[in-house]
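Structure, all two chains, one model.
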Amino acid sequence: MVMGAYVSYGTGHHAASWRHPSSDTTATRNLDHYVEVARYAEERLFDTLFLSDAPAVFNDDQAGFGGRVTFFEPLTLLSALAMVTEHIGLVATSSTTYKEPYNLAREYASLDIISRGRAAWNLVTTSKLAAARNLGLPAHPAHAERYERANEFIDIVCRLWDTWEDDAFPADKAEGQFYDPAKRHRLRHRGRVFSLDAELNVSRPPQGYPLIVQAGSSEAGRELAARTAEMVFTAQPDMESAVAFAQDLDRRASRHPRLNPDIIILPGLTVYAGRTEKEAREKVEELQALIRPEFGLSMLSDLVGGYDLSGCDIEGPLPQLPPSNANTSRRALIEKLAYEDGLNIRQLYERMTTSRGHMTLIGTYDFVTDEIVRWFENGAADGFNIMPPLLPESLRDFSENILPRLQHKGVFKQKYRPGTLREKLGLRRPENQYVTETVTTDERGQHHDHAR
Amino acid sequence: MVMGAYVSYGTGHHAASWRHPSSDTTATRNLDHYVEVARYAEERLFDTLFLSDAPAVFNDDQAGFGGRVTFFEPLTLLSALAMVTEHIGLVATSSTTYKEPYNLAREYASLDIISRGRAAWNLVTTSKLAAARNLGLPAHPAHAERYERANEFIDIVCRLWDTWEDDAFPADKAEGQFYDPAKRHRLRHRGRVFSLDAELNVSRPPQGYPLIVQAGSSEAGRELAARTAEMVFTAQPDMESAVAFAQDLDRRASRHPRLNPDIIILPGLTVYAGRTEKEAREKVEELQALIRPEFGLSMLSDLVGGYDLSGCDIEGPLPQLPPSNANTSRRALIEKLAYEDGLNIRQLYERMTTSRGHMTLIGTYDFVTDEIVRWFENGAADGFNIMPPLLPESLRDFSENILPRLQHKGVFKQKYRPGTLREKLGLRRPENQYVTETVTTDERGQHHDHAR
């Protein structure tokens, strides 16, 4: 079972966690906080440390009630954390909509070298409308357009990581030959979105390619994941939908030639657990009591795609929403909860502040352990991205009480395997595409030019 | 006297340094090498660690003779090195032509937080023609166009660093108010190059703004530096031209309202020194003997802007070069050496392989020390960016033999000052422009909109 520690929001995943007496309100800009969390997650054998990202202020609450606003840029933060950890995988999120393939390929290759093969790229197309304003685009590109770009983008990035073969640098001092020109490859790409002739200026990453992670759940997102992702992070509210999601993704994946046939599926999971159910409930209520209604409305507005709900009665129903170009799957979930299940606005934001649409388990340590095992054994998940409501407290609670139970049941490891993140997860290392192609280039035509 | 350690090229600044018996040929992709160099430079009280950069393969020698090819992405590498150092400034180069202001502002703000106020941005417009091909631009933009973009770019980036006032986060747990909306500022920028409405998602950097460094020597480059730079890195072949450059820059700077009136000018300096002059000469010759002519030609081709010289006789003169859109000041220097001083092609590339146009001092430790003091006392330099021909060897040689002599003469410090890089260098911290403007906004018109 694969376990990720989702630590994007400094004080924890619950939207009001910063108000908790134990919280360090400077956490999102406090390096020491992240060093402590990263070291602890490694000590407890988490497989990955996960940072979400968007080029915009988070939870765009204009009134100042929300505690998740500014944060570290993830590639720089994970490069720093690579120096205080040895085993844990480092997952940085980056947007294909708001970065350039060349710059992104460099950054992840560099992080992979710095971390000795522990880098992972969570590919997103970004659902924040403010990102377009921040970057100076006329508008946030439409969903289909974002995914068209993402599809070309990832192919370019993988090719860029192949620019230099693994053994391209004999560095023969006597002969004066540093690299072997036959092992240097230029990508000639002419696509609908990108047109470039590019050679990366970073050597091939230790993992070949950093691990490819994705989080999109739309039709286009699933297709992209089926073709290219090795790990998928997903929001699933219950086991049935998680099983359906996993089966759908497996079916799609089987239609593509894949180096690693199985996709590691990690639903997000928020846990409130205690020795008794009452103790667990108290942990929820303690945090829920800290939500100001103004903030709940503001957060919900953001989650449905920037539609302003601030004038609405929180005890009333969610109004019919105009079309939006933002995250469609999270919005669809909120609409389902509102229009089919009949949750009012307050109930909707309370649901969202605890979990943002991810599964939430509330109960005794034994109950939570059993639920996790049940999901795992029923093919709903290969593991979980744990979203601690309160950091570091809930991470410690989970690690000290749930993980040992999972180890006892034999579903969670007792120590790290050696090697890179791919090796630890049992994933194959990608071969260089220029090398594997040389025998078949003539048949397949000169789609990519092997210059020189 | 300010001392920088220029460590971009893993095995050292001499183009054939990788062939030296002492060299680690994996240095440009070896984190341990950089950790050792960074720690050593700090132990020896260097003020800054300097990484040059371009989004392209370095020294674009297609035949494989040159050892400077792939390298770390600088922001990720310096974030890692921030964790193993405490005092040394971390200068990362980034291009205004091939990055977006929002992404760049985030990365440097994040590095400044990670390093507790030691980040510096060396702004370049990039002179490598391959960068355009790598990023998919139709052509490398013209010099004037690059500088027009750079001028707007830096103003945007500084404003983005001001998005959140230093005390924007009261984080009042009792009231549930995390930030003060009056201390959050949106930049509304409508320029010739950029048009955006942006708010940074990183808190204000510890230094206010990371230190602004520049390296352009053209007319447009000097004007940009005079208006915005706090430190200038420059290639000056002799003291007279360095004095003229410094005077010109001071004159230009005096015409601009500047927070820190004086620009810290650091010429690049390559030193070959020994107990005797003979010993120093041997150190040069040992490295010069390692240059293959094919590589010398290839490197020179690259330095004059991508014009292919591979068919030329190395004992003959430099042919008349067609116009180029690449680094104009380095090319002008090469043309001067060729057409006015009569250097043939071999002499040109030998000059360039040792120094790339920067000052080179060859002689006894005492001679070199005296020359450094002479430059310093004659207003040619506020210090130097030391470009060790061989790493770490030449850095050790300089640190053990020249630095103590400079300390003895009272021109180099005995220990670091406390505080951020700005504080160590005696530079003022920039105030937030939104704060200083509030009194005068009406008079100056609504150039920047304080939207919220």
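Chain A has two domains: 2-285+359-435, 289-354.
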